[in-house]
Amino acid sequence: MPVPTTGPDPSRPGTFQTGPFDSNSFNPGRPNDAAALMQYDANKRSALVAYLLWFFLGTFGAHRFYAGRIASGVVQLLVTLVSMLLTFVLIGYAGLFLVGLWVLVDALLIPGMIRSYNNRLIASLGRQH
Known about the structure:
The protein has a domain at 46-129. Helix content is 62%, strand content 3%. It contains 5 helices and 2 strands, in the order E-E-H-H-H-H-H.
């Protein structure tokens, strides 16, 4: 029975043998972790940017679009625009009030939305590689 060795593995160039069950050796089929990390860093979302969008364009749902919540961002945008158009008959103020409440609640939800977006990004990068 061969004795487990450590050091360079002469049977596989570019690998380092750490024992009989070497799982840390170079494998050409292994995903390129550096490329995936670079893609993640380039595409991840920031809670700070989301809060800035929330503060300046919150009623239009910009922070929701940024966090990947496209459907709810479109709903928030449409409710805001329709409510603004209907303010001349006073019914629009009710819609603006509801959107205002929604935006205030979103201030508490932004960290979770950003975390969820970044986790989905990680999962999609894991499937690609």
